[in-house]
Design a protein that fits this description.
Structural class: mainly alpha
Number of strands: 4
Distance between the termini: 50 Å
Largest sheet: 2 strands, antiparallel
Order of helices and strands: HHHEEHHHHEEH
Number of domains: 2
Strand order of the largest sheet: 1-2
Radius of gyration: 28 Å
Helix content: 55-70%
């Protein structure tokens, strides 16, 4: 209703503007300016309400919150597409070679940083563990209800991971997926095996700043299959329960 009301108000403003140009008289000019100023106030209030609702919807996600803020200040997100990079002073534009260069950088950045950290072998890490615990942590079988709740609690992201199944589809077909996933998770717990396909992640380079052609100016994010997130949340819940 607000949309139609605002659309009609804009049409009326355009009509008054046209009349003002046709007559060039004081009265139509005053009428147009008065209506225009009133409409500006109404549109600003509507815009404020719109972004307030968007921020409330995004309150559980920092990424979505910043997306709303950037849209408010008209800050366009830089395109992640990379068609050329520099490697040892030479330009590389073959997509496969670019992927290999990014992969090589991301694979070695962790070990290279770790190699520069001094190690103190005189401290036994076991000394940090305090207390006497009689019971070991173990995983228990899950129920249909637990799996169903985990599915419904997944964040509505557009990422699919290697499984190519979006969260919206999981939620929409929750009743169909629940018994299958319950069986798979319980089988995984019983055998102590985590499915290999659930470990596959799509690694996407995200540009930070400075020169786009340098791989060192990118950070990786790993997009996991949504099925693996269900496994993780089940194990996480049981682990937290044990710790508490």
């Amino acid at each position: 209703m607000d949309y139609l009301h605002h659309l009609n108000a804009i049409k009326k403003k355009n009509y008054l503007y046209k009349k003002m140009l046709e007559t060039r008289e004081d009265e139509p000019t005053k009428k147009y300016k008065k209506y225009k100023n009133k409409l500006i106030t109404i549109m600003r209030a509507a815009e404020k309400r719109y972004y307030a609702c968007k921020l409330i919807e995004a309150k559980d996600s920092i990424g979505k919150t910043w997306k709303v803020i950037n849209h408010m200040i008209s800050k366009k997100k830089a395109s992640p597409l990379v068609t050329e990079i520099l490697c040892n002073g030479e330009s590389v534009n073959d997509p496969n070679l670019i992927a290999d260069k990014f992969n090589d950088f991301f694979v070695h950045v962790g070990p290279n940083l770790a190699a520069n950290i001094s190690k103190d072998n005189s401290i036994d890490p076991v000394t940090f563990i305090k207390g006497n615990y009689l019971n070991s942590m173990y995983l228990t079988p899950v129920t249909y209800q637990e799996i169903g709740n985990v599915i419904l609690q997944l964040k509505n992201t557009s990422s699919k991971g290697s499984g190519d199944i979006p969260v919206k589809l999981l939620k929409f077909c929750q009743q169909e997926f629940t018994p299958i996933l319950t069986h798979l998770v319980n089988s995984s717990i019983e055998m102590g095996i985590f499915p290999e396909d659930a470990k596959i992640a799509k690694v996407v380079p995200i540009f930070k700043n400075d020169d786009k052609k340098l791989v060192t100016n990118y950070r990786p994010i790993s997009i996991l299959p949504n099925f693996s997130k269900i496994y993780e949340k089940i194990v996480f819940g049981q682990l937290i329960g044990y710790i508490k």
